[in-house]
Specification:
mainly alpha; two-stranded antiparallel sheet; 5 strands; 29 helices
Length: about 600
């Protein structure tokens, strides 16, 4: 704080304001009021500024204010007692500052009032032309020696100048503050670390904040390094928006408009480099953009940015609430679908471009599992239409779906939450998954899932039986074990094949025993006399002959122990009976 001294005695000044606007608390003003009462020196003009009246003396202001001197000299009314000054910077507070400079022996200048003092001095033309050591020269000296010598001071003056437009632009005060900040940041941040200067900038108004960042970029500051300060500014200015809730709360229209402008400006300043901003921060901005109903261009820009980094996302990043809840889904399915399409479009466009980093296979698989998880999340929503569910699922390419377990889980949840859908829609929903890519556990669950159509259950049983046959006729155990990379998978595969080989050996022994017994029965039948057969047939007269147990039925019963998808009668379902019939030569093979 600087005291500005003037030579000469005090001149009277009184200030009349409504008590609700401003109270007379200054010691200097009290002394002036007491001096006026004791000397009985009345004021000869009243200056009205913003509804506040200032009873003052003409010569006190005319001697230093060129604006008031011209105003009084140009009027035809020599006895003019009331002068109104509109649009003065700072309003009544700004005029009071200038009046105190004219009347008092000293004026206190600080970072809080220097911008107002400089703009008021310019507006009232308080230059050296009317008085030596006038307010313009004094405020300029303070700015050059104190105000613009450090970053915090320049930021504080810039913030005050934002409320003093257009005079602050006329005196180049904003440009000087912006240049000072940009110069200090670029000179001292050699490694582009956003720490010491970010806190001073996040307090700026959004238009001043934007000018500072653009000045930094023009001076060579890397744009991707602006990400952290943009995050801090957004978190500060968007605080209080409950865009994670299930309903939109009332927000003052003026405040909502200000936050909308802030958000759109921040999105326009985001670095274009990939991974410069975290996808969780982009998701927060997109939620706020939908909550504040920003421009379509702003939302599309955020959706595109999220699409480029979708491989890094988790489920919480794409759970974007719907703005309208009247008959709509809980989460915004269309927005997530557009983000997914942006990712796959980027993947296809850059597949042949060596200048761009092609998404890795792990990213593609993560995106596939993420979209299946989202589909399972929204499947329980009773407002989700069948067409929208199918449309979203069809947008997930098969090449990014490692297994169909995630798709099956989403389908099962949807069928459970929507039991009233038609059989045709049920078949369409189930046709979204490839039963052949289901895991063993998923197939076991699907085989007993009554919500699935019969055709789907039969298809699941068929592929499970086919898998078992392939494992039974597979290559030696060493060839299978080498196809698994981990020790746990090697052990599980080895145990499975050993069990199957053991059961196959037992089956062979059983076949040999039954073949031997069949030969003995045939031999005994040949040696038996015909009379015995007649007697036996006569003794059972009147009763139907019992069916003989065939070799095929015995073998089928044994096969049922290792093939869990056979019916209780030992036969496969009708849809698979003809396909799985073995070759004729192999049916009677024992080896």
């Amino acid at each position: 704080m600087v005291d500005v001294y003037q030579e000469g005695g005090e001149l009277p000044m009184t200030l009349h304001m409504p008590a609700t606007k401003k109270e007379l608390t200054s010691d200097a003003m009290k002394r002036i009021s007491e001096w006026i009462s004791s000397q009985d020196v009345p004021s000869d003009v009243i200056v009205s500024v913003g509804g506040v009246s200032f009873p003052i003396h003409k010569f006190a202001l005319i001697s230093k204010c060129g604006y008031i001197k011209k105003l009084l000299s140009d009027t035809k009314d020599a006895d003019l007692s009331v002068v109104e000054i509109p649009d003065i910077p700072g309003g009544p507070e700004g005029f009071e500052l200038a009046a105190k400079f004219c009347y008092e022996t000293h004026l206190e200048l600080s970072l809080e009032n220097i911008a107002m003092a400089r703009c008021v001095a310019e507006f009232l033309e308080m230059t050296e032309e009317y008085a030596a050591g006038n307010l313009v020269s004094i405020t300029e000296g303070y700015l050059n020696k104190t105000g613009l010598q450090n970053l915090s001071g320049a930021a504080s003056i810039l913030q005050s100048s934002a409320n003093l437009l257009p005079v602050s632009e006329k005196v180049k005060l904003i440009d000087r503050c912006v240049d000072t900040i940009a110069c200090m940041v670029t000179d001292e941040s050699q490694v582009y670390v956003v720490d010491w200067w970010a806190e001073d900038l996040i307090g700026l108004r959004i238009d001043m904040f934007k000018r500072v960042l653009l000045a930094l970029v023009s001076r060579g500051f890397k744009q991707f390094a602006l990400g952290p300060v943009l995050m801090l500014y957004a978190q500060k200015c968007l605080r209080g928006l409950d865009f994670y809730s299930k309903s939109k709360k009332y927000l003052d229209p003026k405040q909502e408009h200000e936050k909308r402008i802030i958000l759109e400006t921040i999105v326009g300043l985001l670095p274009r480099e990939k991974n410069a901003m975290s996808i969780s921060f982009l998701s927060m901005l997109l939620r706020a953009a939908k909550y504040l109903d920003t421009t379509v261009a702003c939302r599309l820009d955020l959706e595109k940015r999220m699409g480029l980094q979708l491989g890094q996302a988790v489920l919480e990043d794409i759970l974007i609430p719907s703005v309208c809840f009247d008959g709509d889904t809980l989460f915004d399915v269309d927005t997530v679908q557009q983000i997914m399409m942006n990712y796959f479009q980027y993947m296809s466009e850059d597949s042949g471009d060596m200048n761009h980093a092609y998404p890795s296979q792990s990213d593609n698989e993560n995106v596939g599992m993420l979209m299946e998880s989202f589909l399972a999340k929204i499947a329980s929503d009773r407002n989700l239409l069948v067409s929208k569910f199918i449309n979203f699922a069809e947008c997930i390419p098969m090449e990014v779906r490692v297994t169909e377990d995630g798709m099956y889980r989403a389908i099962d949840i949807y069928l459970k939450a929507h039991p009233a859908i038609s059989d045709m829609d049920r078949k369409k929903v189930c046709s979204l998954m490839d039963c052949q890519k289901l895991s063993r556990e998923a197939r076991a669950h699907a085989a007993q899932n009554e919500r699935l159509p019969v055709q789907t259950m039969v298809q699941v049983l068929y592929y499970e039986q086919q898998r078992l046959r392939e494992m039974d006729s597979s290559s030696p155990i060493t060839d299978l074990v080498t196809s698994h990379t981990t020790l746990e998978s090697q052990k599980s595969v080895s145990d499975e094949i050993s069990r199957l080989k053991k059961e196959n050996q037992e089956l062979k022994f059983e076949l040999i025993k039954m073949k031997t017994r069949l030969k003995e029965i045939e031999k005994s039948n040949v040696n038996k006399p015909k009379g015995n057969n007649a007697n036996e047939s006569g003794g059972s007269k009147g009763k139907p002959p019992l069916p003989k147990r065939s070799l095929i039925s015995s073998v089928t019963k044994k096969l049922g122990k290792i093939t869990p998808f056979l019916h209780a009668d030992g036969f496969l379902p009708s849809s698979t009976r003809g396909r799985n019939k073995p070759d004729k030569d192999r049916r009677h093979s024992v080896a």
